[in-house]
From TrEMBL:
Entry cofactors: pyridoxal 5'-phosphate
Keyword Amino-acid biosynthesis belongs to the record: yes
Subunit note: Homotetramer.
Lineage, broadest ranks: Bacteria, Pseudomonadati, Pseudomonadota, Gammaproteobacteria, Methylococcales
Annotated metabolic or biological route of this protein: Amino-acid biosynthesis; L-methionine biosynthesis via de novo pathway; L-homocysteine from O-succinyl-L-homoserine: step 1/1
GO molecular function per UniProt: transferase activity
Family, similarity comment: Belongs to the trans-sulfuration enzymes family. MetZ subfamily.
Pfam families per record: Cys_Met_Meta_PP
UniProt name for this protein: O-succinylhomoserine sulfhydrylase
Gene: metZ
Modified residues (N6-(pyridoxal phosphate)lysine): 211
Highest rank taxon of the organism: Bacteria
Reaction(s) the record says it catalyses: O-succinyl-L-homoserine + hydrogen sulfide = L-homocysteine + succinate
Alphabetical list of CDD domains matching this protein: CGS_like (cd00614)
Amino acid sequence: MSDLDWNAFHPETRAIRAGQRRTPEQEHSDPIFATSSYVFQSAAEAAARFSGKAAGNIYSRFTNPTVRAFEERLAALEGGERCIAVASGMAAIASTAFGLLKAGDHVVCSRGVFGNTVLLFQNFLSKFGVATSFVELTDYAGWEAAIRPETRLLFLETPSNPLTEIADIRRLSELAHDRGALLVVDNCFCTPALQRPLALGADLVIHSATKYLDGQGRCVGGAVVGPNELLEKQIYPFLRTCGPALSPFNAWVFLKGLETLHLRMRAHSENAMALALWLEGRRGVTRVYYPGLPSHPQYALAQRQQDSGGGIVSFEVEGGREAAWKLIDGTRLLSITANLGDVKTTITHPASTTHGRLTEDERRAAGIGEGLIRIAVGLENPEDIANDLLRAWGE
């Protein structure tokens, strides 16, 4: 099946079939290659593979057939030439940064990103001489003003975490390329089932496979997708040398997750839309953030850029942290956890969990208040989700 042109197939078919190479055993499901190393037929063959003169497996830190199958399938879904899979979403961002950046380089990053992403750029890359400027996601004049001659990357999440703000990917890609920089988009919230940043001009796409690509909260992993020129020459050497490797078992789980990705993302979006509409009419809810709502500031852009609103709904409640924690603690069906992308609905308080390591000023600048709650809407019946919140409100 590896000789098929996957561009000729619909995305749902690619999600099930792309990347599979059957062994002589002719297995129907993807196999797990649980091995650390591989046997060579001769010393000469080993030398040829280690030097790169011959293709083939060497060591599972950077070559494994199960991981490769996941990489090829995700690349086919995103429309990228190459994918590099790694141990986590943060490992994907770190591998991209360490592969592409050097001392003296500059990054422009949106404030509306996962808290650890902020800390990576701000606290760790700065130790190696890489400077970062943070801007509002939808302030395009701010993006342009922040770019310097030494700017190498523009980095963003769209939709953002946790406020689901939407950035115009094509506009930012044109800005980046006009100034000699690369655009890197974290596509965790939408996945390629709902949004394909590379088709809109992005250079690289980042994934936390832990989330929707898995879909059932089983494993941790990450990936970078983009042109072979960038990945092979700059990011892959970091993986091979430093070893943030994805395990074959986790890659196999993600392969299974991709098979149902499109079905799940449609269902997540339908349930999230129902919950968002219900929350908009609730007493004590001051604001609801969901790209599928006409009240969302970037609703029109979301309609053009995404196939649907996705599965994340955030909302603010009156009473700040006390009221937010009381509501969260009062739920019985929903899972209190900061993970997302699961078939089980999860609920969290971003200011004290996902963004808790940011300073109060940094959270305020990112729009993350003490009354903000984020729900990653799962695949339960949406009436049951709403009823659980009603019980938590004491109704």
